[in-house]
Specification:
The complex is a heterodimer of chains A (about 290) and B (about 260).
Chain A: E1 2-3, E2 13-14, E3 17-18, E4 27-36, E5 39-49, E6 54-58, H1 65-73, E7 80-85, E8 88-89, E9 97-100, H2 112-122, H3 127-140, H4 156-168, E10 174-178, H5 186-202, E11 206-211, H6 214-220, E12 223-227, E13 234-239, H7 248-253, H8 255-285
Parallel strand pairs in A: 6-11, 6-12, 9-10, 10-11
Antiparallel strand pairs in A: 1-13, 2-3, 4-5, 4-7, 7-8, 12-13
Chain B: H1 3-25, H2 37-49, H3 51-84, H4 86-99, H5 108-114, H6 118-143, H7 147-155, H8 160-198, H9 209-218, H10 222-250, H11 252-255
Classes of the chains: A alpha/beta (about 290), B mainly alpha (about 260).
Chain lengths: ~290, ~260
């Protein structure tokens, strides 16, 4: 089960398209390298996300996971390599690849319904039609009573659900969740995890879930990518062959869970130690 | 406001008036040269009847309004431009910063040269007074926009115009409101001084409260001067309240907690 990444470091090109897992709807990082302020943050990173599956990205904090999220959303362009969504090269942000940020990025000046309607409205849908789909989506995330409320009137967990609704209403082909539950209290976080597991099981999007919490990653994902210290790339791929729909108690009881966790923790420890020493060295050099 | 707070406020004002009356009667230092509140009140009663007083309110109010509206309608887009376009900022901000410290009243002579009518000259000076404050607040607010809001909107498919109208403008609105309240305060300071210098237009010709005040002083009618001062205070306060209420209307999400 513990397989190292089988993709070759530099993929063979077949014309301008990625040679290996180019399924329709796949979000593919092909040998992506990127620098920020002269320092390499992501280095020769390759992986593929498949539709309807959840991939959790786990790595030491500060290793460059958020940069990968920005690259996938199209907010940043790689210095080398390419990001693909199916046949299309990612050149900028678009509603087919949506990102949910670490802390609430709902527009505080719009009601919850207006936030959810922003996508359809921006792309030219009529007011009535947008309101209809937004209300249906709010019902799906259990916020049908709160469409007229402003985001500050919602609890942290409700804000996260509203934000998921704002993304999902656009039926994206890829969802990028960058530590979406950071800052929530333990109780709410637990509920949100179960809730997201359910949403993901219904969704056909290729989902990238970035986290530092291995238990959360195992509960939600079909596959873990353990990232290396900065400049980051995929260090190890671990499959999570647990049955769906996922139930926390069942996941906790499954002996495979502990095996997966052990493997992941070991891999992560090496990288976290490296990241920590590297950062300290940089501090000293300053 | 609770009833207790209103009561205490009224009590404070009454105590102030009593001290003033007492000081005026007993020839206390400084306050002794003034007429007491009772004299001021009777002077007010006399003024209210004359047409010039209310016309002065109208004249000053109109100048403030147009100067303020001009400052807002030029200042807000200009501030947004400076905040968002780096090239525009590099080009326009240095001259702005050189002109900014010049007191608006120093512009009075040039303003008289610039504009055909006295009213326009005064309104231009008022405009300058509020303009800089509005621009600085807009720039400050727009530069602190949460970048993620812009990114989200672009991901969802919003074009440049939608991003401006639905993200950048509402995100800057609180700073615009602050600029408006402060700017409105400055307009009343400027209108009085501008009317003093330019001579308004004549007492019965709607010279403005500032002109009326100066006229009263030169005629030795100190009670009337005080009536004008209080009128200016009330006018300034009232217009600040109007601006604040309007801006709260525009930002319902600020009230919702």
């Amino acid at each position: 089960m513990n397989t190292t990444l089988r993709m070759p470091r530099r993929w063979e090109r077949n014309g301008s398209r990625p040679a290996v897992p180019a399924g329709p709807g796949n979000l593919v990082f092909e040998d992506v390298t990127t620098s920020l302020g002269g320092r390499e943050v992501v280095s020769h990173c390759s992986f593929a996300l498949e539709p309807g599956r959840v991939t959790a990205m786990v790595g030491p904090s500060g290793c460059g996971k958020s940069t990968i999220a920005f690259l996938a959303a199209g907010y940043q362009r790689p210095s080398a390599g390419q990001v693909w969504l199916g046949e299309k090269l990612v050149r900028g942000p678009g509603p087919e690849r949506l990102m949910v940020f670490q802390e609430s990025a709902l527009m505080p000046w719009m009601t919850v319904a207006e936030n959810v309607m922003l996508g359809p409205r921006s792309r030219g849908a009529g007011g009535r039609e947008s309101r209809r789909v937004a209300e249906a989506m709010l019902r799906r995330v259990g916020l049908e009573e709160f469409g007229g409320a402003y985001p500050t009137q919602l609890s942290g967990g409700m804000q996260r659900r509203a934000e998921l609704a704002r993304a999902l209403v656009n039926e994206p082909e890829a969802m990028i969740l960058d530590e979406p539950f950071r800052g929530l209290d333990a109780m709410t976080r637990g509920l949100m995890q179960e809730y997201l597991a359910e949403l993901c099981e219904e969704s056909s999007a290729a989902t990238l879930f970035i986290t530092t919490d291995i238990d959360e990653a195992i509960l939600l994902a079909d596959r873990l990518l353990i990232m290396t210290a900065a400049p980051t790339r995929v260090g190890q791929v671990i499959d999570v062959p647990l049955p769906r729909p996922r139930q926390r108690t069942a996941v906790l009881r499954d002996p495979r869970t502990h095996e997966i966790k052990q493997t992941a923790l070991e891999a992560l420890r090496v990288e976290a130690t490296r990241q920590f020493t590297d950062q300290q060295e940089q501090e000293i050099r300053k | 406001m609770s009833r207790g707070a209103i009561l205490r406020g009224a009590l404070g004002i009454l105590a102030f008036l009593a001290l003033w009356e007492l000081g005026a009667r007993l020839d206390a230092p400084i306050v002794g040269v003034l007429p007491g509140p009772a004299d001021v009140a009777s002077s007010f009663a006399g003024l209210v009847g004359s047409g010039g007083y209310w016309e002065s309110w109208l004249a000053s109010g109109e100048r403030v309004l147009w100067g303020f509206v001009a400052a807002m309608s030029v200042g807000v887009p200009f501030g947004l431009l400076l905040a968002i376009n780096q090239r525009a900022k590099a080009l326009l901000f240095p001259p702005f910063e050189i002109l900014r410290p010049i007191p608006p009243l120093a512009w009075v002579p040039l303003s008289i040269l610039f504009w055909p009518t006295q009213n326009l000259s005064i309104e231009f000076v008022i405009f300058l007074g509020a303009f800089y404050t509005v621009v600085l607040n807009v720039v400050g607010g727009a530069e602190q926009i949460d970048r993620r809001h812009v990114l989200v909107a672009r991901s969802l498919g919003a074009g440049t115009w939608t991003v401006y109208r639905r993200v950048i403008l509402p995100a800057t609105l609180p700073s615009i409101a602050t600029g408006a309240v402060v700017g409105m305060g400055i307009t009343w300071e400027v209108v009085v001084a501008a009317e003093l210098i330019s001579g308004g237009g004549g007492a019965n010709d709607g010279g403005g409260l500032g002109f009326l005040l100066w006229n009263a002083y030169q005629g030795g009618a100190i009670a009337q001067v005080i009536v004008c001062m209080i009128s200016l205070g009330v006018a300034g306060y009232a217009s600040s309240v109007v601006v604040r209420v309007l801006s709260e209307r525009l930002m319902p999400w600020k009230e919702a907690r």
